[in-house]
């Protein structure tokens, strides 16, 4: 967790505030609460823009081997494994592959040349970057030995310490969401003002959220919309290294890259600029998916879901439907939720700490009192009930679904639905039902080659398919 002392010391180090100003802000925080950054801005010691820029720090490109944090021998070995699959290659193509600056790659490739692992095969110009290299038998044999130890041939990793520092700078604890931006993220949904007015502060808090209520009323949809409401971009490393073991983090299936802007400063290419991630898991969640995934053949690791979700949103949907014991699952979160740090274990037995920095959302259809004990509920700052919609909200949802599917809304047919089915049969309104009804009408229309139309006959057909007799 980016504690007050750490944040303050970094602001002082960058000459953004003085030691005296920091002490005054900390004293105000002790008296009035709030985040340290908020108190510094309120006291006029730093502009909000400067504080936001501070938290958007771009990892600078390393200028030397020492600045990568990696031994030269590690870089040399990684390049040796890369180039064995390349045929002919140049310094720039290798640099692009390992995501390190050309001067550092040049230094490493000089070692490979001296050790007769690679040779120059030609050049287009006299500049060194145009040299075309090839592998020697010595280089291929060495690559085979290295690949037998570890088959990782991705971008160069960053150090665990650098990963932790960057995650702390990008912490969800410092997210600022304007009400207008938040409401826009939910504009495609019909959500009550009371729920929105609670979700907004919850998102800004960076604390755990517990969504509960009857099924089919939008808990999962609301949680996903919460992810779209999170502002800004963050940097995710391709991989980090700890204890000589490589752990991959960047995952194309969950991390959405953001192209650099024209005025963006140069960055360390070992990091990928992405939108704040949103990861959702449900009944398939197991304890194994929350631990490091070691590949015994490739001999490196894949980070668990909560690490991939750092600086973003982690949704545990259908809480209580997992195969594992619910108490075992909840106990797994007690320390990370309290300390905002998680402990992971390598297959060697070595344990290490990583930041646990995400807005975590638990969603369930089960009565919370039957699901979890009060001690755990106390650790969840926000507990929000997503209930059945009111008749007015149900109507708004129905109209939105019709508009989204190019189906003309008809007031008389809607009243028929409400009177003849919901009221007469005493059926509770659910937020998912308008979509289900319209989907049935669309399916039937497409089957017969007609444009979908809202009629009493089609409502009756959809209703019969919607419920079990």
TrEMBL record:
Gene3D superfamilies: P-loop containing nucleotide triphosphate hydrolases (3.40.50.300). Residues 205-390 form the AAA+ ATPase domain. SUPFAM superfamilies: EspE N-terminal domain-like, P-loop containing nucleoside triphosphate hydrolases. It comes from Desulfonatronum thiosulfatophilum. SMART domains: AAA (SM00382). This is AAA+ ATPase domain-containing protein. CDD domains: AAA (cd00009).
């Amino acid at each position: 967790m980016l504690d007050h002392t750490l944040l303050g010391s970094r602001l002082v180090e960058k000459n953004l505030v003085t030691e005296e100003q920091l002490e005054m802000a900390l004293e105000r925080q002790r008296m009035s609460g709030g985040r340290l950054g908020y108190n510094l801005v309120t006291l006029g010691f730093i502009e909000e823009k400067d504080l936001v820029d501070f938290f958007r720090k771009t990892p600078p490109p390393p200028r030397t081997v020492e600045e990568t944090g990696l031994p030269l021998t590690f870089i040399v070995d990684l390049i040796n494994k890369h180039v064995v699959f390349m045929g002919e290659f140049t310094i720039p193509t290798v640099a692009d592959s390992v995501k390190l600056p050309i001067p550092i790659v040049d230094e490493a490739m000089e070692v490979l040349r001296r050790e007769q692992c690679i040779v120059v095969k030609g050049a287009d110009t006299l500049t060194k970057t145009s040299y075309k290299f090839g592998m020697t038998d010595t280089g291929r044999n060495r690559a085979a030995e290295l690949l037998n130890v570890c088959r990782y041939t991705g971008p160069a990793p960053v150090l665990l310490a650098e990963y932790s520092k960057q995650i702390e700078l990008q912490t969800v604890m410092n997210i600022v969401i304007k009400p207008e931006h938040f409401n826009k993220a939910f504009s495609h949904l019909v959500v009550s003002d009371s729920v929105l007015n609670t979700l907004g502060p919850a998102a800004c808090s960076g604390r755990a959220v517990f969504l509960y209520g009857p099924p089919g009323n939008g808990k999962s949809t609301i949680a996903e919309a919460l992810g779209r409401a999170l502002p800004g971009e963050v940097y995710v490393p391709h991989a980090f290294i700890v204890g000589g073991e490589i752990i991959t983090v960047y995952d194309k299936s969950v991390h959405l890259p953001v192209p650099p802007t024209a005025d963006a400063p140069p960055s360390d290419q070992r990091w990928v600029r992405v939108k704040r991630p949103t990861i959702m898991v449900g009944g398939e969640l197991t304890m194994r998916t929350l631990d490091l995934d070691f590949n015994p053949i490739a001999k490196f690791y894949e980070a668990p879901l909560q690490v991939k979700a750092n600086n973003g949103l982690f949704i545990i949907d259908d809480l209580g439907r997992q195969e594992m014991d619910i108490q075992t699952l909840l106990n797994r979160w007690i320390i990370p939720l309290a300390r905002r740090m998680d402990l992971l274990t390598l297959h060697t037995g070595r344990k290490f700490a990583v930041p646990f920095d995400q807005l975590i959302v638990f969603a369930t259809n089960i009565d919370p009192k039957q699901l979890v004990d009060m001690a755990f509920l106390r650790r969840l700052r926000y507990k929000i009930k997503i209930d059945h919609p009111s008749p007015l909200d149900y109507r708004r949802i129905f109209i939105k679904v019709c508009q989204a599917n190019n189906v003309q809304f008809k007031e008389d047919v809607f009243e028929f639905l409400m009177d003849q089915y919901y009221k007469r049969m005493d059926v509770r309104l659910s937020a998912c039902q308008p979509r289900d009804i319209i989907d049935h009408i669309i399916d039937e229309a497409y089957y017969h080659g007609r444009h979908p139309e809202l009629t009493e006959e089609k409502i009756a057909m959809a209703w019969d398919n919607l419920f079990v007799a």
